[in-house]
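#dry-run=false #mode=assembly
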Amino acid sequence: MIALSSDHAGFPLKEEIKVFLDSKGIEYKDCGAYNTDSVDYPYQAKKACDLVVSGECEKAILCCGTGIGISISANKIKGIRAACCTDYFSAKYTRLHNDANALCLGARVIGAGAAIELVDVFLNTEFEGGRHQRRVDQITEIENMQ
Ligand code: RB5
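#status=ok
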């Protein structure tokens, strides 16, 4: 189960991602936005990330205008490792090396075609573990110091 969320700027891209997920038979929970009426990205990030932290969803896909505001917000939530990606390599390696559990996309930055490629590789790449596990554990340690 994938948690989806966006603000108003990310809404059109989120809708395109839903079409892709439907075509692959991947289930999701849509936390809004449900239209292009203005809605603030921080709580939109939280709605989807809470589903990941609770274990209800495995990963989140978050869309705003740049992908940045929603990723900054998501990374404030304990247990979330959110990566704002615009290229295939980063979307792949943030899974392999960072065990990222939230992919953030900028609807005003990349087109839906490219974004869907990133979603596809992000959802289909497993964490490599090994030496990368130690580093991810350090991220958690730092998070727990706050
Ligand atoms: C909304 O206008 C815009 O600021 C937001 O979608 C996002 O780009 C923020 O980082």
